[in-house]
């Protein structure tokens, strides 16, 4: 299985392109040499393609057909190169496949914008994809083998059920932000000492970009001459006089940004019950341990069995009745959500200082106009994968035998 969260900035174009394309690049990267040869032979013969190449349907049919052709040609060029680089019988390494897929797609996004397209709208679109940006956090699950490839500040966290039934959080990825000292050191080491104070300013790349790894965002990757050349030859929507607004300050030794993912591996265990992949908006709102607790209790109903705590104070029978009624109301509201991801978003948006959902606050937050909502919360995307402990346990035993 492949699961991923894509978080766009400076518009949605790059995140949209990633959601439509990255899984195909990963899938092609994971195909053995012989299968790649069969795929190429099928395309040459004009035979029906595998479902893996049935592109996501865009609401605009005309644009979809144009974009599909562009996307398909880029992907085909990639697998043709993989055929030349691999040998018969060679089995791809998952870590290498994920790394190559991320880097190749980012390179194709950049190249497509440089080449342009005779179709004016498609030309405009490829420029929008390249100049906007997006982070990506992708999990590849094969039996009990779990790889996480992360580029940016989305995060993957494992929910581990302890012997006493409680849940603890095990982080599967590192945030690529200014709070990550190793990441800041990496970027500074790639540029001259004279740029030490300017390469990261106010916790942002060149004082502008919060995530320190991302797809697209070619204004942090291309030379100034290339940016001017591409934008001056572009459509009317990106007039040549506007190119200066794309060039960041203190821009001397590009590239400053990479989409290369940091890849982590984890062998799933029976106590690993679920994984949460969330955009940075989730983790800014809730601590990872709180996220795991909320999801764990939702999935197991643990909070129904917990004894009522009154904090050691003397309470009357009437007060106790009120507390029990309150808990009953919370229990009924906890299960009004169809899935654990929706339940988690309810907490992320409506949480109060007591760690419970304030429905009045939730209602207000969800009714804010889009331009105003950004002042109070980031957009939030969540994917939760549940694991079957019996299946994982059996697979681990098979692997050891």
From TrEMBL:
InterPro entries: PP2C (IPR015655), PP2C_BS (IPR000222), PPM-type-like_dom_sf (IPR036457), PPM-type_phosphatase-like_dom (IPR001932). One of its GO terms (molecular function) is metal ion binding. The keyword Hydrolase applies. Keywords: Acetylation, Calcium, Hydrolase, Magnesium, Metal-binding, Mitochondrion, Protein phosphatase, Transit peptide. Its EC number is 3.1.3.43. SMART domains: PP2Cc (SM00332). It is found in: Mitochondrion. It comes from the Eukaryota. GO terms for cellular component: mitochondrion. It is an enzyme of class 3 (hydrolase). It catalyses: O-phospho-L-seryl-[pyruvate dehydrogenase E1 alpha subunit] + H2O = L-seryl-[pyruvate dehydrogenase E1 alpha subunit] + phosphate. Its cofactor is Mn(2+); Mg(2+). PROSITE patterns: PPM_1, PPM_2. Residues 1-387 form the PPM-type phosphatase domain. PANTHER family: [PYRUVATE DEHYDROGENASE [ACETYL-TRANSFERRING]]-PHOSPHATASE 1, MITOCHONDRIAL (PTHR13832:SF627), PROTEIN PHOSPHATASE 2C (PTHR13832). Heterodimer of a catalytic (PDP1) and a regulatory (PDPR) subunit. Mitochondrial enzyme that catalyzes the dephosphorylation and concomitant reactivation of the alpha subunit of the E1 component of the pyruvate dehydrogenase complex (PDC), thereby stimulating the conversion of pyruvate into acetyl-CoA. Belongs to the PP2C family. This is [Pyruvate dehydrogenase [acetyl-transferring]]-phosphatase 1, mitochondrial. It comes from Perca flavescens (American yellow perch).
């Amino acid at each position: 299985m492949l699961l991923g969260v894509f978080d766009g900035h400076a518009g949605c174009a790059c995140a949209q392109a990633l959601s439509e394309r990255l899984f195909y690049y990963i899938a092609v990267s994971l195909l053995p040499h012989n299968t790649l040869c069969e795929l190429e032979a099928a395309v040459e013969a004009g035979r029906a393609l595998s479902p893996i190449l049935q592109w996501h349907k865009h609401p605009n049919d005309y644009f979809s057909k144009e974009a599909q052709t562009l996307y398909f040609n880029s992907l085909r060029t990639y697998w043709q190169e993989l055929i030349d680089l691999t040998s018969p019988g060679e089995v791809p390494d998952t870590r290498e496949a994920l790394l190559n897929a991320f880097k190749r797609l980012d390179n194709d996004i950049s190249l497509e914008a440089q080449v342009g397209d005779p179709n004016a709208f498609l030309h405009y679109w490829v420029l929008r994809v390249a100049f906007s940006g997006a982070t990506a956090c992708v999990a590849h699950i094969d039996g009990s083998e779990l790889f996480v490839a992360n580029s940016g500040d989305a995060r993957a966290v494992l929910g581990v059920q302890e012997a006493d039934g409680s849940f603890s959080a095990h982080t599967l990825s590192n945030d690529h932000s200014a709070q990550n000292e190793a990441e800041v050191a990496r970027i500074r080491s790639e540029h001259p000492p004279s740029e030490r104070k300017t390469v990261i300013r106010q916790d942002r790349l060149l004082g502008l970009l919060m995530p320190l790894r991302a797809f697209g965002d070619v204004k942090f990757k291309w030379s100034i001459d290339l940016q001017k050349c591409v934008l001056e030859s572009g459509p009317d929507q990106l007039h040549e006089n506007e190119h200066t607004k794309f060039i960041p300050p203190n821009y001397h030794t590009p590239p400053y940004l990479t989409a290369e993912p940091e890849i982590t591996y984890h062998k799933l265990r029976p106590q690993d019950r679920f994984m949460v992949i969330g955009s940075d908006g989730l983790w800014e709102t809730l601590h990872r341990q709180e996220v795991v607790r909320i999801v764990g209790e939702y999935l197991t109903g643990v909070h129904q069995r917990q004894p009522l705590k009154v904090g050691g104070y003397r309470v009357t029978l009437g007060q106790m009745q009120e507390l029990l009624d309150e808990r009953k109301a919370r229990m009924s509201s906890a299960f009004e959500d169809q899935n654990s991801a929706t339940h988690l978003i309810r907490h992320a948006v409506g949480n109060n200082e007591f760690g419970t959902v304030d429905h009045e606050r939730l209602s207000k937050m969800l009714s804010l106009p889009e331009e105003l909502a950004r002042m109070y919360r980031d957009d939030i995307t969540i994917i939760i994968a549940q694991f079957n402990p019996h299946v994982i346990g059996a697979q681990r035993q098979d692997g050891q035998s």
